[in-house]
Task: inverse folding
């Protein structure tokens, strides 16, 4: 047994972290809010492509880095930490390896690897986060994976203005695979990517809050010295610390196609979702009024957290675990 | 005596309020009052309310009210929110400043200001927080210096995190009149027109989209003696009276949460495909919370009519409604699933609800007040 | 509208409170723990009878005080506050008015009023709290109310040793009524009595804890001056304060047989159950090790709280409210 | 490197442990170890474990162990609790004192004491708390005075809330050797036989039925120099090492909670009539918590094998396992419904779980440690 990142994984994570610290500061996230600065956002996508990130999960013989889901977790955590306002997780962790695994019938993979093609994933109904920025949309429904070009695009106003969400009309053709194992793998990778980003977002909000409460003074002392603030932040940290290994373990389970992988993903999503949501609420409360202004950066990360957490599908994960534990499925009589 | 149904008179009052609201509540609903245009539409609505004498039902007739009892006021609030009527953009004036004016104002101040508040002619915002004085309100440094020659006071300093400050016409708040006195002493409560020379209002966005969230700067602003409420140096006591209103019943009547809870239940019914047993239970418990708040306030109103002062117990209200409001909205967003991230009344309501545990004294401050002043625990060292 | 106790209600509550403070101190609760002092416990029952309490909810023409459920709430709260180790709630609030309403076919009422007959209520299965002390058992099942004398009695060891619980074999005859409205009323009164006692127990634990943390010093200050303790107790108080009016309102709804009475009872049970459970946990934690000893009194009240809360039937109350709100009934598909 | 399956060697170890446990775990289970008679039966079991070299698998062979790796120790703990084996009444000696002895003991102390701990010959209890020193451990007043003539130390004072103190043979704890030094200074860690003249042990019941919960009084108790562990005046540092063991991994391995979670799931399956969707979700989430604790400890063990010291992070373990343990048991009691009030393994386990957030430093203390030493927040004023 062994459970820590190896030197390569650490080096890649740090490279991504350093790059995003430089290229995706809060100002870049703001640039993705309308009206914003689309050119700056597009430049970030090219920077990520230059690092080879969109091929991270693509086999080497297909032009990628040949990494597995275990390796993706720390990268996606950094993507969350920076709240990258682009469909990086969708393209890198789900679409690119799917294209590679299916022989890329549409010939999209080179563009994806080169950073000229962005892929979003369709959410519930016709809502597609990053739909305004996506060249392609991956639809995972009814046991099929489809990759399609949108027919029509209508912008949607969202709480997190940097999500570039759209309501899209999509063609019904474009099936890439109906292999249930591969479709499930796409869903699991998407869930894993969400969990990892939520961890990173949680860390970002924690760092912002720890920094603020250490300097903000009220009643003659830094507010971070009051038990009410200290204990609430300790509890928030607890949630993040206990979610992190579960997310990493889920990545490993996917990478090794273990029998328990789907339940491990569900565990990861439940823990990371709860931890990030708790952290968001804690961060806003510990900041007080300043955290409630849009001039301060916290809301950028809190709103992304709510958007990702809302897509988690808590009940479906509970049902999946119920099945694994031989407990009854949810629903009503 | 316990009697939890309307008296004949209350029932008549309810019927009459319901009828008027049914005929007059704007449909489709007004746009958000958090933009300048939306705010103007809300002010129009407030004036319509006033013209029909529904803006301040519990006030004396001479100020535009109906001399309604506290029970009738609760009834009106229930009907108002159940009828889908707009949030009250006049709330700072009506629910916070006015109770303080009734308690501390001179007859001249009352006669001048109360009708203008009722009629939405003056639109008031709060001036409590300063950049270095949030939870620690006693740390404020904005000051007022007596100018005998001009026959008034000269204000300077900065107030911030002022809800709808960019759209209002007046501000009430604390200024330091005696810089040598200790924290809670030497403060005076002032009433300031935002149009006065030397006042600058800078709006900056709020997380929930309120564009009127503002920072207000005072540079040598001259106000007359009549701008002092409750006496020079008496500001802390006067402000605590406002704070008690803000935390307690008057700002957040149960009607508002009962209506939200009912809308939540309706949402749950309408989203059968998203409604898991877990969410059903969450909906029920949130609805139960709204009922609990109603029972609690009824009990509190009875006690007040028997002469009790809510005092520190207003902090119990504030803790409860602020957490209830978040729970109601979070539950709705869970029902909406992935659609929760779109900009809807529920998502905007959720963002607004997050301010509840922060403004009017953070919930941490409220818990300390409850512990020390309701439970009588020893004060923090 | 009006919502406060009147002078008579306050006077009766205060009389019960004063009497129990004197006659049912912690030492008397301890006397009910095995091996204990059965004579002392029996004396308390006689004292309660002398106050006329067992006839509280019996009409005046049947020899009672003619009070309604509204009046019972403050009395039962005091019974909870003292953790009276006897089936007072069962006998006073449920059995006695039932006997009166059904014309007392078994001729039990005089003994109940005189304090010579104790009535327990059968719980789940064959478990009967206070079964060891009961002359009669009220069984509320299958749409019938039966009052029976137990056939056999086997003592049961319980967490709260003062509950005198037994497993009883009961005869199947003895139906007092099968009027559904009257049977429901018995169930509602039992639930109301549980909620009111939980409120009182919560208050008792609060008082003990406030007293302790005000004097116990650590780190050079009373522990009640630390925010961690202050804020936790503030939250526990909040639960109790918001449950109390709901319980009183449920009593009023029962007394006036309003259309919403059953859902008002469910609201009361849910709020009081949560508040008392939270208070128990808070009290133990704020006390630290001393609260964990049996020499200290706290456990007497905490264990009674757990016993009563366990009998609350949370899910059935949620289902009842679901029906009232036109939401689906619980269960599995 | 991540590899979350047993190596071949670990798998062999697991098989071997499982086989021995399957053949030897007492059935029916032993009575509670909280009575004198039950305790004696548990000590017999501990000696059986020792005879088969399963009592201290990670210790060197010369002390009765198997030189097992930390991973193998985790494996053993999983198998031990999954097999339904009894709680370890030797835990204070094996999991708390022994790690401290390995770190601070002299070779003579190690050679003398460790085999006796492994073999359950010496049965250790803790002597931290005093009536006026609970959370505030540095406030202890029990003292040890040097007696040069007798060549040792004379102990006096009182320790209290000592789990199973009435049944144990030895106590480790802090005594003040320099009354002039400040709170954390001037303390020394002593190892004391409870049979020594001048020691009185008074048992008093504990809420969960532990009859061995005790108060230990020392009146002029003479102990030799060898009774000092880690040097005179160095007691705080030595004690913090023990505390870190108590809070962290060594006292509460995941195996215990994984086994409880599995029993909870089995209970849920067996009580279909009581299992509502709400309780199903609660069961699942509690089970998820146990899995999270396992992943966390695996990650922690990997870090420790790479040289990291858990240090203040042990407080994270303690917060998590203590709350998890309550949640597992509360959920079980809800499944049991009205039967929950009867005296069962679950109800006893629930009462025991409530001590988790209290002993080994209350969870309030742990949260402060996490805030100040893990998050680096400013210290409380």
Result:
């Amino acid at each position: 047994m062994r459970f820590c990142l190896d030197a390569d994984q650490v080096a890649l994570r740090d490279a991504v972290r350093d790059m995003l610290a430089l290229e995706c500061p809060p100002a870049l996230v703001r640039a993705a809010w309308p009206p914003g600065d689309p050119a700056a956002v597009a430049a970030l996508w090219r920077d990520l492509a230059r690092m080879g990130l969109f091929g991270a999960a693509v086999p080497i013989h297909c032009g990628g880095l040949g990494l597995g889901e275990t390796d993706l977790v720390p990268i996606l955590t950094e993507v969350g930490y920076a709240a990258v306002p682009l469909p990086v997780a969708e393209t890198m962790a789900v679409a690119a390896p799917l294209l590679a695994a299916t022989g890329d019938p549409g010939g999209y993979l080179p563009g994806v690897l080169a950073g000229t093609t962005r892929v979003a994933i369709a959410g519930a109904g016709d809502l597609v986060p990053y739909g305004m920025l996506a060249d392609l949309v991956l639809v995972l429904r009814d046991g099929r994976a489809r990759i399609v070009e949108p027919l029509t695009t209508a912008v949607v106003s969202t709480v997190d203005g940097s999500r570039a969400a759209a309501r899209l009309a999509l063609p019904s053709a474009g099936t890439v695979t109906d292999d249930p194992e591969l479709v499930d793998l796409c869903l699991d990778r998407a869930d894993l990517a969400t969990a990892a980003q939520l961890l990173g977002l949680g860390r970002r909000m924690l760092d912002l809050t720890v920094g603020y409460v250490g300097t903000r003074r009220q009643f003659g002392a830094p507010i971070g010295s009051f038990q009410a603030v200290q204990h609430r932040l300790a509890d928030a940290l607890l949630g993040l610390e206990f979610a992190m290994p579960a997310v990493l373990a889920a990545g490993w389970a996917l990478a090794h196609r273990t029998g328990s992988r789907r339940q491990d993903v569900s565990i990861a999503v439940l823990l990371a979702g709860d931890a990030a949501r708790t952290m968001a609420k804690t961060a806003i409360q510990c900041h007080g009024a300043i955290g409630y202004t849009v001039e301060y950066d916290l809301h950028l990360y809190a709103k992304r957290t709510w958007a990702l957490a809302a897509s988690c599908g808590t009940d479906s994960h509970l049902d999946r675990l119920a099945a694994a534990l031989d407990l009854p499925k949810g629903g009503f009589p | 005596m316990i009697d939890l149904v309307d008296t004949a008179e209350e029932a008549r009052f309810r019927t009459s309020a319901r009828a008027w609201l049914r005929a007059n509540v704007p449909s489709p609903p007004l746009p958000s009052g958090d933009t300048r245009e939306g705010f103007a539409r809300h002010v129009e609505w407030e004036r319509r309310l006033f013209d029909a004498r529904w803006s301040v039902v519990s006030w004396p007739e001479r100020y535009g009210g109906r001399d309604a009892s506290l029970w009738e006021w609760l009834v009106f609030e229930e009907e108002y929110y159940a009828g889908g009527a707009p949030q009250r953009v006049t709330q700072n004036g009506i629910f916070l400043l006015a109770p303080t004016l009734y308690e501390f104002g001179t007859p001249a101040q009352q006669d001048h200001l109360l009708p203008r508040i009722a009629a939405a002619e003056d639109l008031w915002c709060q001036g409590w927080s300063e950049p270095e004085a949030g939870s620690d309100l006693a740390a404020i440094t904005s000051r007022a210096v007596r100018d005998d020659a001009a026959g008034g006071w000269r204000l300077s300093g900065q107030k911030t995190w002022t809800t709808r400050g960019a759209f209002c016409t007046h501000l009430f708040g604390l200024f330091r009149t005696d810089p040598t006195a200790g924290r809670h002493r030497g403060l005076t409560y002032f009433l300031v027109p935002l149009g006065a020379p030397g006042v600058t209002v800078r709006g900056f966005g709020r997380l929930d989209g309120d564009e009127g969230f503002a920072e207000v700067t005072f540079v040598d602003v001259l106000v007359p003696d009549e701008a002092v409420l409750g006496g020079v140096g008496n500001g802390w006591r006067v402000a605590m009276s406002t704070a008690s209103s803000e935390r307690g019943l008057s700002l957040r009547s149960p009607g508002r949460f009962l209506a939200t809870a009912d809308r939540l239940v309706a949402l749950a019914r309408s989203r059968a495909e998203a409604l898991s047993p877990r969410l059903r239970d969450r909906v029920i418990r949130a609805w139960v919370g709204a009922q609990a708040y109603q029972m609690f306030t009824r009990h509190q109103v009875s006690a007040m009519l028997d002469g009790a002062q809510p005092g520190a117990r207003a902090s119990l209200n504030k803790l409860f409604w602020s957490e209830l409001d978040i729970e109601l909205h979070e539950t709705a967003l869970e029902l909406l699933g992935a659609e929760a991230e779109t900009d809807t009344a529920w998502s905007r309501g959720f963002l607004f609800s997050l301010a509840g545990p922060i403004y009017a004294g953070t919930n941490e401050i409220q818990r300390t007040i409850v512990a020390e002043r309701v439970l009588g625990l020893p004060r923090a060292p």
User: Anything to note?
Assistant: The CA atoms of residues 2 and 299 of chain D lie 9 Å apart.
